[in-house]
Amino acid sequence: MRLRAVLVALFATVALLPHAAHAARCAMDYSVTPARCVAEDACIPQPGLIRCPSVTCESTPGCPGHVPRAPLSNEPTPASSEKPFEFQQVQPKLGITIPTLPKFSDLKALKLPSGTLVVDVPWIGEYLSAVYKYLIPLGAIIAVLIIMGAGLVWMTSGLSDQKGQALTWIQNAVIGLLLLVGSYVILYTINPDLIRPATLRIQIAQPIEYVDGGDTDSAVTVDARTIPATGIICPKSGGVAAIPEIVGSMTGKVAYRLGGKGGGPPYSAETGAYQTTCPAGNICLDCSGFVGYVASCAGLPSYGGGTSNIFSSSEKITSIDYGAGTVNGIPLQAGDVLGWVAGESGKRFGHVVLFVGNGQVAESVGSGRNGGALVVRSFSAFKDARGYPFGHIKRRS
């Protein structure tokens, strides 16, 4: 009885093996190019024929039972608004070649209706599918060798114990082969999507230019409606004596926006989402917008807009003593501004900082686009700071 059961299982395995291999080959070929998945025998109705997932002879006009093919879950339909875009193709290289995977498919880059750029990467699914397709015949060969060896032992041995052990080998080999082949058939029966090579969809990160400082030459706007909401002190009087209090009240309430001068969005000089947003509870200022805003709240004359205007007729810096707080041998006073203009020292943008008094300097920096743009530190700290090629100073008095 045991031998009969083994033979029945072996027959079932042999019957399923070519169909599973055909389905695996068909599914893999379809992921590479839809045309390959139409097998020649798929157009000939045969009982028990395992056809390709979602595509058989029905996709070939003129074949029996021709119907429109249902698209794969990861395949854009003709009416889809996903649009391909140009990019440089790359191909992974395997250290160990797999005969069932001659090459990987190309990446597919798409632009979704939302404007998001994505790349569909089929390589992991193709690799796993190729390994499985390679293991099916390899497992079958190993199982057949075990069956042949055990059969030889069973026929030549006169001992019942050895015959029983040989029969156990045959039974285990057949069960293993059934699991190897049957798992594919079971998964395909439950849902053909389970055996298709999965595609990994990766969103492409949009580059956002980082600007540590920089400004435009627009005029500063002090919007009285935003002052109560932020809690910023803006008396529009007091002169240089009011600067420390004004700057102190702005701490933690400034977000950087290139071209930000105190008004709301949009900020046309910015990129991406920063063009149309300003964090709640903050005012959005670039570096010259910050010094101009402080001057306006202190009731002082404008510095002149952006850095190109601020330093157009300013004093050229020839020496700085960071420890003593002097520029060109003259002590810094509250309200003095230092910086450079675009193009100097290889800088794409100009930048300006404000001397607050008591050895402190304040500035709006580009790293604070989500808040925290206002940085206040001692002037002596700039001695070892990189990227601050101070070339000009405009003194308040």
Into which percent range does the helicity of residues fall?
A: 25-40%
Derived structural class = alpha+beta
Overall pLDDT confidence:
76
CATH class of the largest domain, please? Alpha Beta
Give me the CATH architecture of the largest domain, please: Alpha-Beta Complex
Number of strands: 15
Fourth CATH level, the homologous superfamily of the largest domain: endopeptidase domain like (from Nostoc punctiforme)
Total domain modules: 2
Low-pLDDT parts are: 6-11, 13-80
The span between the termini is 110 Å
Strand order, biggest sheet?
A: 7-15-11-12-13-14
Question: Count of DSSP helices?
Answer: 7
User: Roughly how many Å is the radius of gyration?
Assistant: 37 Å
Output the keywords:
4-stranded antiparallel beta sheet; 7 helices; alpha+beta; 6-stranded antiparallel beta sheet; endopeptidase fold (from Nostoc punctiforme); 397 residues; rod-shaped; 31% helix; 2 domains; single chain
